[in-house]
Amino acid sequence: MLPLQGIRILDLTRLLPGPLCSLMLADLGAEVLKLEAPQGGDYARWFPPLREQMSAAFAALNRNKRSLSLDLKHPSAVEACLRLVEQVDIVIEGFRPGVMERLGLSYETLKARNSGVIMCSISGYGQDGPMAQRAGHDLNYLARSGLLSLFGAHTNEAPSMPGVQIGDIAGGSYQAVSSILAALFRRERTGEGAHCDVSMTEGLLPFLSMEFGNLNASEEVPIRGDDNILRGGIPCYGIYQCGDGKALSVGSLEPKFWIQFINVLGLPALASEQMETGAGKERVRAQVEAVLAQKTRDEWLEIFATIDACVEPVLTLDELAEDAHFVERGAFQTHEHPTEGSFVLPRSPFRMTDAEPPAHVGAPGLGEHTVDILKECGFDDEEIESLRQQGCIL
Predict the structure, then answer these.
(1) For a Cys-Cys bond, which of 141, 160, 352, 375 suits 152, CB 3.0-4.6 Å?
(2) Domain C-terminal end among 289, 319, 349
(3) Residue 153 has pLDDT above 90, yes or no
C-alpha cells in the first residue's frame, strides 16, 4: 500500500516548485487535482521544447495528475473551489502572499469549510516580512540566501550560476513535501489542519549550516574561490579531466582513500600531500592530471571499479539512463503519453517496503477532467452547465 493512498490534493500551483511537490506526493499515492485557469492553464504547458501538443517539461512534471479548469476571478468559481476544498486533504498554492485572501480563499476561509485541511503556501520570501511582496525567481532566492556567494572558482569574478533550479526544488518543492507530510502526521494525532508557510529562500539556509558553524568558530566569512575545499581547494577533492576530455570526480578526503587513489596512479610519493593548498595544491594536481590524461575516462573507471577510492564519473544526462547501477535499480522509467509519445524520466526517489510508485498516467490536457472531478465532488449537470455558461470552466 502506498503511504498517501486515500489522500486528495488540490494543486493551484504553476511552473516548477509546486508541481514537482505534488508530483512527488502523487508518487506516494496521493490523488492530485490540478486546478488551472481556462485561459492557457499552467504557463509551463507552453515552454519549449514542445513534443506534439505539450511542453516536454510540463509532461515530465505533471504525470499522474488530473486537470480541472476553473477561473478563480469569477465568484461562482471561487465558491466551486470552496466546495472542492470540503473534500480534499491538502491545498497547495504558489501565488504572491495575499492573493489567496483577495480571491476569498485564505486559510481561515478554507479552514471554515474543512477544519482538517492543510494549506501549503510556496513563495519566494515567505508570507510576511518586508520582502513578502517582492517578485523573484530561483536565481534571486539563491542570491538573497547567501548560497550563491559560494558558487564560483575565483573570488575576483562574479559568482557562477548553477545549471539547475536549486532554490525552486531544494528550497521549494522538497521543503513543501516535508512540511505537508509533517502536517499530515500532526493531523493524525490532533485532528487539526495547518497552514504551511514555505519560503524558498529560507529553505536554502540549511545548506549553510556547516558554513555558519565555521563562521561562529573563526569569524572568517566563507568565500568562493580556489582555496575553498568544496571548490577543489585541496587535491584530494576535485574534478580531473581524462585523456578523452571527459571528467572524473575524486572525493578521496580520508587518507585511506587518497592512498588507494595515488597508488593506482603510480604516485605513492604524494601520500602525505592530499591537503596541500596554494602552490602545493597546483603541483600535486599537475602530477595527477598528467597521469589521468594518459587514459580515457572509461578506461580509468574500469581500473577503479574494484578500488575503494571515492572516484566516480561526471556523467552527462544522456548517459544516466544507461548507467548500469541506475538500470539495475530502475532509477529511470519509460512512460508513454497518448499524444506526446515516450518519455524517459526519473522514477520516484521514495523507496520503502511494499510501496511501488503507482502506474504511470500521462500529464493531462487542460481541463481534461473538469466534469468528472466536479461530479465526484457533488456537482450536478445543471450546476456544471451554469459554471460553463458563466465562463468559469472550459
Answers:
(1) 160
(2) 319
(3) no
**Structure-block grid coordinates of residue 172:** 521549494
**Backbone torsions φ then ψ of 120, nearest 5 degrees:** -115, 120
- Asked if residue 173 is part of any domain, the answer here is yes
pLDDT score at 229: 87
- Out of 319, 342, 376, a domain closes at 319
Rg (CA), the chain: 25
Sheet holding 311-313, edge to edge: 237-241, 247-251, 311-313
Whole-angstrom CA distances from 197 to 94, 95, 289, 326, 383 are 10, 12, 48, 35, 34
Q: How many domains does the chain have?
A: 2
Catalytic residues: 137, 168
The C-alpha cell at 370 is 473538469
Confidence of residue 156 (pLDDT cuts 50, 70, 90): confident
206 domain-assigned? no
Residue 293 sits in which domain range?
229-319
Question: Does pTM top 0.85 for this prediction?
Answer: yes
**Among the ranges given (24-38, 146-160, 369-383), the one the predictor scored with the smallest mean pLDDT:** 146-160
Q: What is the pLDDT of residues 114-147, one digit of tens each?
A: 999 999 999 999 999 999 999 999 999 999 999 9
- 3-class secondary structure, 126: coil
